[in-house]
Amino acid sequence: MKDMTKTTREYVHGYSEREHRRLRDQSQTLAGLLHNDTIYPAGSHVLEAGCGVGAQTVILAKNNPQSHFTSIDVSPASVNAAQAAAARAGLTNVTFQTADIFNLPFSGASFNHVFVCFVLEHLKQPGEALRRLKSVLKLGGTLTVIEGDHGSTFFHPRSDAAWRTIQCLIDLQAAAGGDALIGRRLFPLLRDAGFRDVTVSPRFVYVDASRPAWGDGFTHNTYIAMVEGVREPALAAGLIDQPAWEKGIADLKASAGPDGIFCYTFFKAVAMIT
Amino acid sequence: MKDMTKTTREYVHGYSEREHRRLRDQSQTLAGLLHNDTIYPAGSHVLEAGCGVGAQTVILAKNNPQSHFTSIDVSPASVNAAQAAAARAGLTNVTFQTADIFNLPFSGASFNHVFVCFVLEHLKQPGEALRRLKSVLKLGGTLTVIEGDHGSTFFHPRSDAAWRTIQCLIDLQAAAGGDALIGRRLFPLLRDAGFRDVTVSPRFVYVDASRPAWGDGFTHNTYIAMVEGVREPALAAGLIDQPAWEKGIADLKASAGPDGIFCYTFFKAVAMIT
User: Fold this and answer.
1) CB contact at 8 A, A112 and A44
2) Could you tell me the pTM of the whole model?
3) pLDDT tens across A54-65, in order?
4) At CB < 8 Å, which residues of chain A contact B?
5) How far is CA B272 from the centre of its chain?
6) pLDDT tens-digit readout, B172-193
């Protein structure tokens, strides 16, 4: 959900204020599930590649006050927003920089660890990105990658109409060169990029009526908001017509209702270089 | 994967020796993931409804040596097989009985706990089954339900052909009155049957090349074997032609190979009556 492509126009979710709010909502709800086990040894130098508007930066830097983060993004506007978010959070252990994963302004073996979250899904060459990041890692360092997988989505009540709205997002992301279903293939991606000891740990999100905070925070404000975010481009590209879109979104919203169930899987991988 | 329908002919997986072996393979691999947290207080009387060939019975009874199990199934042949499996395992805390969930030969409030695994998916009236089971539970007792959800399946490499073979199984199960995607809706099913404090805990199976025991035991010997088990009825019903079937199975097998990823979600629910 951040942009590491060359031109910011390709970023499927756009750069609106509403989208910034969505990314912050998302990070609040998911923080525990995705990030609680990312704790670096004191004194670590960590590269966060693709920090976006700083949603993960703030969590990581708070969870690791004894480490220093260098957080980069290819979009200057996102870097500015991330810097402001870090300042609001009172963080002093992050340095921000506008930079491109494919043209890293660091010498080899500059970092103890690298962290990449919701970035590879947007890249045409995720394997090459991993190789570039590997080149700035010290021996014995770790790479942590977190990605979603929209193909892991399922819900109740079942609805083909709802699925078609999700498919619009998948198709638009593919048209931009990305892969919204990349989560499932982190293991071969990391292994083929030359990493060792690749360990993938899926993070399954399950929401029913007994978990209203997740229904609001994840199903509604994160996932459905993400799908709704591609309404205009999906209609403009002729991927779907307006009545089908409205029906699909209404059905998706039912999955966050009192009889609804919503399931989604994130994948977190940790790999070493040796 | 057991039959509680009125006639055994409706059971989608059939009753072959190969199928019995598959059910035993499956229970070995999944035992830890699905059953390790089902521990009853000493002295409990537990009804296992739909014991099938005893795959789960053996695990449950071993994990709970101080409890007594009454294990029923609508198929006399399955009950015989289950009884033999329990004898081979040296179990003395299980009583077997041929009986139908919809016509239970027990008086009200006979059991401290009820356990149902891979049964509701085969029933035309799963909600009614839950109400019947509730009627033989003592106040304060628990019902534990475990079901799969074939719609939760996803894998790498992606393949529409592979998906079509899975869809054959889903369609055949639906034609027999069942629902191979029932796992996701355990929460509303239990709540609407009058249970309280329903807690659903998804059990996510993730298999990559670093987990060969799961690739063999689950992806290949359990899941793909299950799909392959409906080859003849799927072809006979005209749901798919033979070349498409072979291609789909070959693609599914690639998901258990060195570059493959396989994901599946089971749902376990525990509910109370008060």
Assistant:
1) yes
2) 0.90
3) 999 999 999 999
4) 149, 151-152, 154-156, 158, 181, 184-185, 187-188, 191, 198-200, 202, 204, 206, 208-210, 259, 261, 263, 265
5) 21
6) 999 999 999 999 999 999 999 9
